[in-house]
Amino acid sequence: MSRVTVHLLRHGEVFNPEGVLYGRLPEFHLSERGRAMADLVAGHFKALADGGAAPVYLVSSPLARAQETAQPTAVALGLEIVTDPRIIEAENHFEGMKVSKAELLKPRHWPYLANPLRPSWGEPYAAQAERMLAAARDARRRACELGGDGAQAIMVSHQLPIWATRRSAEGRRLWHDPRHRECTLASLTSLTFDADDVVGVSYSEPAAVLLPGAATTPGA
Questions:
Q1: Cα–Cα distance, 158 to 61 (Å, whole number)
Q2: What is the pTM of this model?
Q3: Which molecular function GO terms apply here (predicted)?
Q4: Which residue in 33, 109, 116, 161 has the most C-beta neighbors within 10 A?
Q5: What is the DSSP letter of 186?
Q6: Which residues contact 196 (CB under 8 A, 6 or more apart)?
């Protein structure tokens, strides 16, 4: 069977001076650091191309920060950006707010905190993993059509959907402590497929040099 790698790329840092959880809100764009992160990722993939292992298919979430992260890689590899709404950020009740202990203690939020394992404040982890894996399998098929055995694809998405997908692919429980996600800005969570089955997961940080001092807004 053909093996294909699908790289789940988290977007770069976003300009968010108010520190809100921006979720699916429009018009949140990359910061200057975020654009530099996107350039580093493009350089990473260009180096793969120069070594004969170029990704042949590029997909992005419809949100601005993901599209802007994808753009330098599209230019570097000469690829079109295909937009897939299935890899958008998770829905979240707290979208547009500064999430703090004081905010969480307000009674109007209590019904949304009833079940942190689902979670009750937003899209279920299982639903996120399901839609992301469906999109990844479609990206795998398209990459295989374009590049054959050993082909690669890139999906530019968001931290929580990527993390839920990784945990699902690794057979781990989906509920978790958000502070312990291994999915930094502009990182790659790479799924190796044999046909439609995930047979390997790896992680790398091509923009690691820019992480010190970067924003750490939860869920960003």
A1: 8
A2: 0.96
A3: phosphatase activity
A4: 161
A5: T
A6: 137, 140
